[in-house]
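Write out this protein's structure.
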Amino acid sequence: MEKPTYQRVLLKISGEALAGAPGRGIDFAFARQVCQVVQDCVRHGVQVGLVVGGGNFWRGVKDGGGRMERARADQMGMLATVINSLALQDVLEQLGQPARVLTSIPMGPVGEIHSQPAADRYLREGKVVLFAGGTGNPYFSTDTAAVLRAAEIQADMILLAKNIDGVYSADPKKDPGAVKYDAISYDQVLADHLQVMDLTATSLALENHIPVMIFALADPQNILRAVMGERIGTIVEEETKS
């Protein structure tokens, strides 16, 4: 069996990517495809941590902005990530892949409270670890939560599976002349204000020397291609390689 390039990764999936046709809820057929590929990664010896957003149910700033207090709206978003994590855990276990949900806030039987030692132990045991509840604090995105958990578990790479196939010089939907980058440095991302992750997440990844690969989740096999070392999408790193 071909050996993976990365031994331990943090996979971040947007909640919107799991949404059904109406743009809300969970498309379980697609979720199963994603989980099958995650299971394939584990079978190749990759340790997988997973953070999933909650935008298919609730986006704090977007859905609550101007109508409710920001911290409470963000807390609702955290709960949405728990819903998605439980759904993915169930799909993984249906496939025979052990998975554990660790929550950033105490939630009793819903999930075990997050701790770095527990996450490390489960990953070494071949379990997929789903980090739910964001950072546990309002005003921080799930991108920031993903980078934080990646730093804690000392992930080799952050895999950012999005609805776009990489990083562009401008919004390709608005600018037909937008150029896609194969690789880009964190310094350029910050200097050009490119929308890869929010500023806090980008700075945290840079500070902890964790590269990020951004690619489209439309084809879930891209996850396996990424861990096997195929350079898909865009890689964001400290210094781009010529």
